[in-house]
Each structure stands twice: as structure tokens, then as C-alpha cells.
Design a protein that fits this description.
The chain is an all-alpha fold. The protein is 78% helix and 0% strand. Helix 2 packs across helix 3 and helix 4 packs antiparallel against helix 6. The chain is globular, with a radius of gyration of 18 Å. The protein starts with 5 loop residues before the first helix and ends with a helix. The model has no long low-confidence stretch (mean pLDDT 94).
Length: 142
């Protein structure tokens, strides 16, 4: 696969690990407060993320991060934290086979936000795909 398409490999790996996350979390949160479970998960993520930063030497780039990037990275972190808190609570009290499709509906929401906020090109293929994902989400949860 050409280097310019290597993002596909990373995206597929992301999907595999996201799927594992759901199943492992559903097993792990049995009889554990969902907020506590999310906090434990977050500590593990922080250790792995900072470990990779230091292994790759990326820590030297901290001083080069601009104010705008800091603001949006912090806002993204807040959104991630809230997403994880709600996801773990939903996963704890709901069926994984129904919670996960609703959570993955974020794909459609992200597409709409990309069109509206980032002004990405809205193609017929993207609209049809989004509609199919929406239909599939509803088919899986009803």
C-alpha cells in the first residue's frame, strides 16, 4: 500500500481496537462504578500516550504548540472525557450490541460537522453513506 494511503491501515487498526474496547469494557465494568472505570481507563491511556511521546521524542514539540491548537486540543479532550463518561455509563446499563451502534453514530455526526464547520466537500457518496449508516444504526437498535 502506498504511503499516501497508510491512513487506511491506521483507521482499520483503530476500528479493531475500538471494538475490543467495547467488549473488554463491558466485561470490566461489571460491579464497578462507570465513572471510576472511565478514570482507570483514562490513566492507562495517559500512560500509553505519554510513553509513545517520549519513545518517539515528540516531547520537544510541546513548545511549538500555538495558543489556538492548545484551546482546541483542550476542548477535544473535554469532549473525549465526556464521551467516555457517557459511553461507559450506557455500556454498563445497556447491551453492548445496542450501545456500540449508537456510539458509532458519531460517524454521521462527524460527517455533518465536517461539512458545516470544516467546510469539507459534501459528495453524493458521503450523503448516501451517511444515510445508510443512519438506517443501519436504527435497524440495529430497534
Amino acid at each position: 500500500m502506498a504511503a499516501k494511503n497508510s491512513w487506511v491501515v491506521y483507521a482499520l487498526l483503530s476500528a479493531v481496537f475500538a471494538a475490543l474496547t467495547s467488549i473488554l469494557a463491558k466485561i470490566g465494568i461489571s460491579n464497578v462504578n462507570s465513572n471510576l472505570a472511565t478514570a482507570i481507563r483514562t490513566v492507562v491511556v495517559v500512560i500509553i500516550a505519554w510513553g509513545l511521546v517520549f519513545i518517539t521524542g515528540a516531547q520537544s514539540g510541546i513548545a511549538d504548540i500555538g495558543a489556538k491548537s492548545w484551546v482546541f486540543l483542550v476542548l477535544s479532550g473535554i469532549a473525549t472525557g465526556l464521551s467516555w463518561m457517557f459511553y461507559y455509563k450506557a455500556l454498563q446499563i445497556g447491551e453492548a450490541s445496542k450501545v456500540v451502534p449508537i456510539d458509532k453514530f458519531s460517524v454521521v455526526i462527524s460527517m455533518v460537522l465536517a461539512f458545516v464547520i470544516l467546510h469539507e466537500k459534501m459528495t453524493a457518496k458521503a450523503v448516501i453513506g451517511g444515510l445508510l449508516i443512519t438506517a443501519g444504526t436504527f435497524a440495529m437498535i430497534l
